[in-house]
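yo

u said u wanted the structure for the complex thing, so here. seqs first:
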Amino acid sequence: MRQQTRKVMADWGFDVNADTACGNLTVEQRQVVEITRALAAGTRCLLLDEPTAALERGAMQRLFERIRQLQAQGVAILYISHHLEEVFEICSDVAVLRDGAMVLTAPLPQVTKDDLVTAMVGQENFSTERSVAPAPARREPAGATAASAGPDLVVEGVTFASPGVFLGNVSLTIHGGERVGVTGLRGSGATTLARIVAGAAAADVGQVRLCFPGQGDRVLRPGDRAGALRAGIGYIPEDRQADGFVPLLGAAENITMTITDRIASSGFVGPRRREARAAPLARRLSLVSAGLGQPVRELSGGNQQKVTVARALASDPVLIVAITPTRGVDVASKELLLSELDRITSQTGASLLLASDELDDLAICDRVVVFVRGEIFTEFTEPPFDREALIAAAEGLGAT
Amino acid sequence: MSETKDNMAALAADVESALERKRSKSAAAISWIREAALLPVLAVLIVVGALLNPHFLTVSNFTGLGQQISSLGVVVVGESLILLIGGMDLSLESIYGLAPMVAAWLIVPAASFGSGMMLSPYLGILVLLAVGVAVGLVNGLLIVKGRLNGFIVTLGMTILLAGIQDGIVKGQSPFNLPPEFSYLGSAYWGKIPVSLVVTAAIFVVTGLFLRYHRTGRAIYAIGGNREAARAAGIKVNRVRIGVYVAGGLLAAIGGWMEAGRVSSVAASQGYGEGIIFAVFAAAVIGGVSLQGGKGNMVGAASGVVLLGVVQNILFLENAPNYWIDAIDGAVILLALILARVIGGEASAE
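structre next:
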């Protein structure tokens, strides 16, 4: 059994001890365990719900190969995904559900990508062009306008090691108002760097500090999320289920969780004041809920993510750290979240550190830094960014 | 184009949320019914008690009952707080015994099984509170900073403390407590026991604190999803340690009431009587979740009253001694099932 496990995991490109508890695996490895478990049982019908959400490209291709094999063997496959490319790649028929109703069913060769998007969003005039480069008007570079006189973020010599992730002596500066994307394959350290800046992880060596123009530096204590928040760093975590929101509490309470110190008078705060503070953000992000008191557990994935984003924005941050802010949300919410992040950073002059491997996310950045195996591999400073070049760089190929 | 789309989306969201608000009003009514789920059960019990025994519906019975459930009630508040942050503390029952024991031992003369130090009763009260705080702090540090399992830490702690409680008085029960020390547990204001007033006040203050204070809200956030609370900048460890300290303090106050009520500290007070089971039963019957993040003081209080009324009826009916525990257990199970059936799956608070 162990041998078989080893072999299966090796097929997927992981060197994993078969006795490792699943809790100690990375998200991606766990996903593979889940998928292989489902495949192992000699299934006649296989249901895959967003199976690629945590997979990097190589693993995704391996999954598709297996799916095609199964298809050839006569297994029925129900594949649920937000990613249209995946649908076109491996599905033969498609059905679109919107607001609890089946709005489109058709064999795939008969529909185009635009048809699908239209059906998903429900508006004829929705343009797919926008989703490629959502930034409406390019903002002036940092320093050119008075509004963007925020602090610089300086990361200096950060080193971090844990099973599966390694960062070696990374230094990076984000100027006030600048929007920087960090990307790379899983385990490249891009996400970990973002977590360290947000105070959600502690670097072993190195320093993270905010340099306020004319006011001196503020060195952040490693792993002190509360301190980072007070210094003005908003944080959109990678896995919203794990640390994005408290499922039993209401939307308003989750959104205002980062600012209870500001809205409470001598420590006390009532639901009305919370909702008054949360309402503008909820409206701006088009949050759909049964009132702002509705437990976030009952909201859809896209709306849960909006709550997570609103929570980060509520504290009027000078720097927003966002990790895969649009993962697993529907097309319309994704568009909205990105344009809102773009708008807020433009309006308030806040800087952005965005860790993602999706080009759509990175498109709102002024600069993209690519990580390979824990080090900065290269940098793209000229938007729009080229998908092929980014992918090649992430794989560690062909500098610049 | 994109602006019209945004406006449309915003409009749709507005309409939708207006509709939902209507729905959520009726949902709020339902949640209020669930919150008061135990009240009908309580009403039935009171009718049953009145029919069974003419002494049940008397002022003296109710004041006595109020005094009896007060000490348990304070401990239930402490345990509920700890359950709400997703913890569990078995040692509260031993704090409930040890804290008044140490105080009594320091206060009463050697002839009443004291240490002979004859400490002033007021200093004794301070010592009692300090014992509660100290044990809570040690628990909190071991569990939060030491990352030890709360169940095992407090299990070890409860046995250790009960041993100390026995050890310092060599198994005796100090008695003849001075009136200053006994006041809280035994005095009456008019016909109302002081302990009942104090316990009710503790329930109300804690309830309001949990509902409206930012630290109270942080307790729900931590119990509901500790990592999300941390990512939102809540000082999770500080709040958790604080809650263990509050739990220890409240357990000490509960033990103080009990000692005053019977005017002595039995060597078996707390651990020896196994009150932690009644504490957990009251909290859980009252809807406080063992998984954390869910429950409130209205529920916890009704759980305490329910258990107290049942025991009172059994006592008045002279239920056979050998069967009291069995009946007690059956009632707890029944109340749990009822609370579950009526309450369904409640949300936070």
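Chain A is about 35% helix and 20% strand. Residues 331-348 of chain A form the longest helix (18 residues).
cya
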